[in-house]
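[Meeting: bench + compute handoff]

Bench side (C.D.) handed over the final construct sequence. Compute side (W.E.) agreed to return the predicted structure before the next meeting so the bench team could plan truncations. Sequence as handed over:
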Amino acid sequence: MKVRIGIGLGQGEVSADDLAEVMAAIDAHDLDSLWMSEILTSPGPDPLVALASAAHLHPSRRLGATIVLPGRNPVRLAKSVATLDRLSGGRLLLTLVPGLPRGVESDVIGVPVAERGAVMDEVLPKLRRWWAGEEVDGVRVAPRPLQEPLEPWLAGLAPASLRRCGRFADGWLGAFCTVAEAVAARAAINAAADAAGRELDPEHFGMSIGYAVTPPDDAQLAAIAARARGRDVDPADMVPVGPAEVRRVLEGFIEQGFSKFVLRPTRPPVAGWDAELGSLAAAVGPLQT
C-alpha cells in the first residue's frame, strides 16, 4: 500500500511568494503534493489558475485540485482540467464536489442544492469520455489530459454521494469523519461500484484532515459542528492538535487501509511553511511508503 501525504492550503489570500514558499517546503520535506480547494466567495485563489502557476515551481511534486462541478460549463471544465494536466506533465490529482449547501456560497454556485446530484450524474460520464478523446454532444475536447486515464475522485458522506462515487468515480477523498464512518463509506462505495459492474482501486481511498497547532477556538468548533450536523461526533475530535496527534489519526486510518491524505493547517503558519512542514514531516513523513 502506497501511503502518500499532501498539503492543502486554506482559503486565505495566496501570493506568488506564498506559492513558491509552500512548494519549496513540500519539496524539501518530501511530501507528496500541494492541494487547493474551491470556495467561490473566499479570498482563496481559483485552484486551477493557482496550480498552473505552482506547476512550474517544483516539477517533481503533484498538484491536487478540489473543484465545484455544478454551475460550470462542462466543456470549459473538461478543457481547463485537461490543459492543466498536460502542461504540468500529468501531475494533476482531481476531486470534484457539489459545493457547500448553505449561505451565500450556495447561492453563487448557481444550481439549487437539490439539483446538484443530478448535474453531477449527468456531467461526470461526459467528462470521462471527453478526456478519453470521444465525441460527446457533437464536441471533442482538446488538448487531452496527459494521464490516460485522468481519474476523478469524489467526496461526501451522504448516501447519494457514496453511490455516485461507486458508479462514476475512481476514488474517494473523505473529510470531517471518523475512521468508522470512513470504513462504512468505503463499503457503500464498493457496493455501488459492484452493482454498476465496476471496481475501484483499493488504494484510491483517502482523507482530507484539517489540523491545528493550538486547540480550535469556539468559532472553528462551531464551523466543524455545522459540517457534522446530524452525526454523533465531537467537533473537537475532528481536528488533531500538533504533529504527534496528526500521526495518531493517520495511523488509525492507515490501519483500516486508507492510504492517501491531505493535511490542511487550520491557520496560516506563524513561523513560515518550512518550519511548519518540517515539524509535520518529522512526525508523519515516515508513514509514507
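W.E. noted at the follow-up: The CA atoms of residues 17 and 23 lie 10 Å apart. C.D. will use this when planning the next construct.
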